[in-house]
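Q: How would the structure tokens look for this protein?
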Amino acid sequence: MLKPYSIADVQFQLGQEIGAEGRNSQVYLAHDPQLDAQLVIKKIEKQTLDADQYFSESSCIYAAAHSNVVPIHYACQDPDHIYLAMPHYVNGSLKRLMDQRFLTVREIIVLATQFLSGLHHIHSQGLVHFDVKPDNILLSERGEALIADFGLTKSRGLNGLAEQRKHYGKMAPPEFFLDEEYDHRYDIYQVGLTLFRMCAGDAEFDRQFASHYVNDEFDRDAFSQAVVGGQFPNTSNDTFPENIPDPLIRVIRKCLLAVEQRYCSVIEIVNDLAPLDGELLDWQFSRDAAGRHWMKKLDGMSLYLDVGPDGASIARKGRVEGQERRINEYCVAALSRQATKRFLREN
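A: Here is the predicted structure in token form.
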């Protein structure tokens, strides 16, 4: 004899909207009076999806508990919407951190290794995320990166592929413009774009994307040709700040190759990130109207390099809160990119 499911009320009060994830879903801060807890509620319109399939795939995420995957506390529905309840991470997203400043190489490697661990776990459950980007990587109270937002996540079929008709255009891989089914390497391409944005900055990423607008109209054909042809994004060395090591740039480029040449698994990316070491890890880079700036504080010493728009440079070092002195070899009228990289490697 089948036992019917019990139906009970779930109460929460929606507060401030903290994110609109497209036209069909919103994200709110919410208060659950039964738990006296502040949560995040994602509200999705039912008319835009197959509710049973959505709950089925959400249950896979719920079952796939992992320290670098944002958990789903519970799910519920009313006649018009589905609601997913998740923890509230006060540190926000990786995107928010990137909007505040450039990341150091050490931060890039640590955060990438963490969210890649979560993504590997998702792939091990036979799922493709389909929406890996800085906005969907959240930071815990300890500053650890967790992969989030499974609104586009799909299960892979017996042929190892998953269908997905919804895509975030800026992060679409070449196969999006060529095929109708995809495997987990779709996510690996998006990992490459995420790493590119972490290294080069979103201003550079947005500048390159904006170049495909003509008279305020997006040229989709030109953009798709650039993606398929490997011209978007431009990953030439001079696109990156000089503190970004060449091995890290090579990892990004391999993620962005055609699907057959791309990394086959997330673990391969982690293995190539693990050996990165050296003096480049802790430089803090910034850019403004006065030029490009690097600063590092380590073992009681402060090091600075400022390069103006015309290439004129000033290099300084000294004790923290102590007197500084110039490093005359790097105080020149026009500091080359090669000399900049040498200074950053050697200090």
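The two ends are 74 Å apart (CA to CA).

The chain has nine helices and 18 strands.

Upvote if useful.
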